[in-house]
Amino acid sequence: MAAKRGGARSNRSQRPGQPPRPAGEPPLSRQRIVATAVELLDAQGIDGLTMRRLADRLGSGVMSLYWHVDSKEDVFDLALDAVLEYRGSPQEPQSEDWRGEIVHILEDWRASMLSHSWSASLLPRRALGPNILSRLELLSKALSRAGVADADINAAIWSLWNYVMGATITRASFDLSDDDRAAAQQRLTHLSERYATIERSRLLLDDDWDGAFRKGLGFLLDGLAPG
Amino acid sequence: MAAKRGGARSNRSQRPGQPPRPAGEPPLSRQRIVATAVELLDAQGIDGLTMRRLADRLGSGVMSLYWHVDSKEDVFDLALDAVLEYRGSPQEPQSEDWRGEIVHILEDWRASMLSHSWSASLLPRRALGPNILSRLELLSKALSRAGVADADINAAIWSLWNYVMGATITRASFDLSDDDRAAAQQRLTHLSERYATIERSRLLLDDDWDGAFRKGLGFLLDGLAPG
DNA sequence: ACCTGAACACCGTTCAAGT
DNA sequence: ACCTGAACACCGTTCAAGT
Predict the structure, then answer these.
(1) Does residue A32 lie in a domain region?
(2) Are B53 and B164 within one domain?
(3) Which of A81, A173, B67, B180 has its CA 20 to 30 A from that of B32?
């Protein structure tokens, strides 16, 4: 068994086309681990991230990771927050267009998550890193400036958060399965007496995700700050 | 190694206080598997569901499950949809209060998911089972009756879906970690120049989840069908 | 301070076989 | 038609040890 294990490991570290890491390999660090985890997640999805594979990519032993990181769970948290760094100009033009500003903040948030589609499925499990908090802060300020009453601010923030997270998660999960969607709509047609209404409106085939996101956000903002 | 395995198995099937299943054990079935999976998920959470543990609870060998079920993924799908069965009276009183009706549908949806908190974290990965579709159908009909224009119906459905799913996922994940939330708010205070606004509004300590849900839903419905 | 390999206690699923 | 055990190819993490 030990021999078999050994064989498997050497297969892994001699991946075809991947020469052994040069001796000048930079030392392990929390940062390098997180960056590589994001790469791996982008390439292989959520189930593709394995402490063993991560270590391989970094050219180190598995257990070396645990010096810099508490657990796999920790890696997930760090990767999620890393991907949510806000890259907008810190000094916004302070326009009068508060509504455009809020829409921009939320569309950017959604876009950041959609460009790393695993991030949506990571959300339900985890905590609020500094980059998420920064975005919430930004949003809160914009809502204040827009004149939302103090008593309504938290509810407004959570409403928008809920909407964005729901939309992003939905979009990311449906994206994986265009065929599934077609098949589902097919099933609907087949059972059309049970699902007559959503069959007729072609709910599952509508694929203008960006448009639907904007439209729904519009409804919500109308409700939040009428006039 | 074979011996060790055997030992582990017999430990498992002789859990303390759990007599061996009587010979009259009902036969395995898809239904029984799903029901037991839900039990197990309720008791142990998402990481607690294991094909091996599931088989143990059912008094069968692991591989017997695979006759009735395609994969673990399949079990997740079935468990999620099982928990979303709609238990309302099929013949609603058809009230004039369309808004109350919609609120009821969505609060019931949220409540169903929150009473099986693992269901929220399952959402991002998966498909639309019959019970989910039924709820969408119900919602669609209510929106029609409320006078939402046909052209807006799909956007309205997805907006409400996004909101409910986002709210449920957020609530379920924050529920696990009251301490984390307090710690996070603590951190905020400590770095208060960066997060001044959300620190002041005590965003992370606000725990009237039900109230926030209803309030935000109100905003959204105001936007969806003003007047 | 930082990195390591061996070992432990698990996983999901394939396969060939049993009834 | 339905159920099974052995085996395969993995996991995350503990631990004692190395530099």
Answers:
(1) yes
(2) no
(3) A173
| pLDDT of A54 over the 50 cut | yes
Cβ <8 Å between A127 and B156: no
Q: What is the pLDDT of residues A143-198, one digit of tens each?
A: 999 999 999 999 999 999 999 999 999 998 876 666 666 777 777 777 667 899 99
Q: Which amino acid is at A99?
A: R
Mean pLDDT check: name the lowest of A162-176, B6-20, B108-122.
B6-20
D11 C1' to B75 CA distance, Å = 20
**Residue B33: which domain range?**
27-83
Looking at the structure, do residues A45 and A105 belong to the same domain, yes or no?
no
- Residue A102 and residue A170 share a domain: yes
What is the identity of the amino acid at B26? P
Beta strands in A47-136 (DSSP E): none
The reply to whether A68 and A166 lie within a common domain is no
Which residues, other chains included, contact A35 with Cβ-Cβ below 8 Å and sequence gap of 6+?
A82
3-state secondary structure of B170: helix
| Range name among A32-41, B23-32, B87-96, B100-109 with the lowest pLDDT average | B87-96
Q: What is the mean pLDDT of residues B190-219?
A: 88
**Do the Cβ atoms of A169 and B167 come within 8 Å?**
no
Write out the two tokens for A98. Answer: 């508060």
Q: How far apart are CA A124 and CA A182, in angstroms?
A: 27
Contacts of B153 in chain A (CB under 8 A): 201
The answer to whether B169 contacts A165, with C-beta atoms less than 8 Å apart, is yes
